[in-house]
Request: fold
Amino acid sequence: MRVLANEGYRKREDSIMTDAGRIELLNVNHPGKARPVDAAMYGAMKAAMLAFLPDGKPGLTVAQLQAGVPALLPQDLYPGGAKAGWWVKAVQLDLEARGIIRREKVSPLRLYRA
Reply:
């Protein structure tokens, strides 16, 4: 594990964890920029999304993902699906940036596991 100079971040496999239980959220639309977010919220959403998304095309629309994923989330982190919509979109963009999921370039946009 390598500590990045003066930033308080530790590099760990394909993600950057902060010392305070946070993870750097990437965005496929803004390469090279990252935003620290709660690691537990991120991890729960990532697991739910990967469990819900199909392995290949045609994939699911973002609306289908946002409708189905909240049922897979832990209630202690997402009570009643609270804030799930924002997290679906944020984690979607992060997973695309990491190459874990892909988008099919159709309208509406469809997502699937890489």
Q: What stands out?
A: The chain has one domain: 2-54+69-100. The first strand starts at residue 2 and ends at 3. The CA atoms of residues 79 and 113 lie 26 Å apart. Helices lie at 39-52, 62-68, 84-97.
